[in-house]
Amino acid sequence: MKSAVEADLKQLDVIFKINKNLGPAIGTDQIRKEIAERLREELDYKREGTHMKLFGEILKDYKDIKIPELVDDLCTEKLLVMTFARRTSNEFQEFYTVCEK
Questions:
Q1: What are phi and psi of 73, to 5 degrees?
Q2: Which terminus, N or C, of the chain has the lesser number of Cβ atoms within 10 Å?
Q3: CB 77 within 8 A of CB 47
Q4: CB atoms < 10 A from the CB of 80, how many?
Q5: SS3 at position 82
Q6: pTM (2 d.p.)
Q7: What is the DSSP string of 10-70?
Q8: CA 31-54-63 angle, 5° bins
Q9: What single-letter DSSP state applies at residue 74?
Q10: How far apart are CA 36 and CA 30, in angstroms?
């Protein structure tokens, strides 16, 4: 996954260089930096796991919202393992149907 993100960022560099050559009115350096930071954050599975636990804690009192729990012993820097959260009602499907209209 990390190599795929880095390859995508290289392609983004090419696109931004072409843009710069066509007209430097739009500075792309900061855009590229921001995109790269956000993508690399997504690759930080420990950070993602921490956020998952945080959301679980924040939302624990909402009976209709279930956040899967991490299985810490099986998680690595490249893999998050979590419990399966079975849907308990059709509320999500109802919400999704309303949103599609």
A1: -65, -20
A2: C
A3: no
A4: 17
A5: strand
A6: 0.56
A7: HHHHHHHHHHHHH-TTS--HHHHHHHHHHHHHHT-HHHHHHHHHHHHHHTTT-TT---PPB
A8: 120
A9: G
A10: 10
Cβ atoms of residues 25 and 50 within 8 Å: no
Reported as a single tens digit per residue, the pLDDT across 23-57 is 666 677 778 888 888 888 888 888 899 999 999 99
Report the residue count for the chain: 101
Residue with tokens 């893999």: 79
At residue 37, the pLDDT reads 87
**Identity of the residue numbered 11:** Q
Per the CB < 8 A criterion, the answer to whether 46 and 52 are in contact is no
Q: Which residues contact 69 (CB under 8 A, 6 or more apart)?
A: 56, 82, 83
